[in-house]
Amino acid sequence: MSVSLSIFFTKPMKIEVHRLSLHAQKIFNFLLGETKQPLNISIQNSEGQEVKIIEPDNKIYRFIENMLLGEGGYILYMLDEYWEYHSDKEIYEFSITEIHFNNESFLFVVQLSILIAVAQISGVDYLNDTHGLFKETKNDKVKIEDLLNLRVNANIYSINESLKLFYNKILLS
Fold first, then answer.
1. Which tens digit of pLDDT belongs to each residue from 86-130?
2. Which residue, 105, 104, 103, 129, is CA-closest to 116?
3. Rounded distance, CA 35 to CA 105, Å?
4. How far, in Å, are 49, 79, 81, 87, 128 from residue 9 at the CA level?
5. Hey, what long-range contacts does 69-73 have (CB within 8 A, 24 or more apart)?
């Protein structure tokens, strides 16, 4: 079973990759109690070409964090195919699929940072968590504020220690 986290919103938007990378870097550092860990996120289309803007087009994008990880995951950004069952307006979905859980890897924190960045840019205050990944999830939703409140509070730890503390605070299992 592939685990994913999603954001749903009603106004489609073009997301600038550079802006997204900078915003996700701020969130990443905030969550881990760091001040200066750089991230460099690049996004490729399904043909493997780097893109500067992503938009809802029913294609899978691949992202790579080039500074810390050298790896990444997949983004799906599209019109929700079942929107008319949930709303009288079109609903767009931004999802990161194949969520990676390894408490010795920064990939999950990068994935979460990207999602929170898109949510904040789009004005959404929660993530859809239909798998119940977080202790704070209620009715398949987890508030961004609740996730941000679980951050590691001080930068007195090494980044690897901060990662372990963060995993202990945020995940159910």
1. 667 888 889 988 777 777 788 888 999 999 999 999 999 998 887
2. 129
3. 19
4. 27, 10, 13, 11, 11
5. 69/105, 69/106, 69/107, 69/110, 71/107, 72/41, 72/107, 72/110, 73/97, 73/98, 73/99, 73/100, 73/107, 73/111
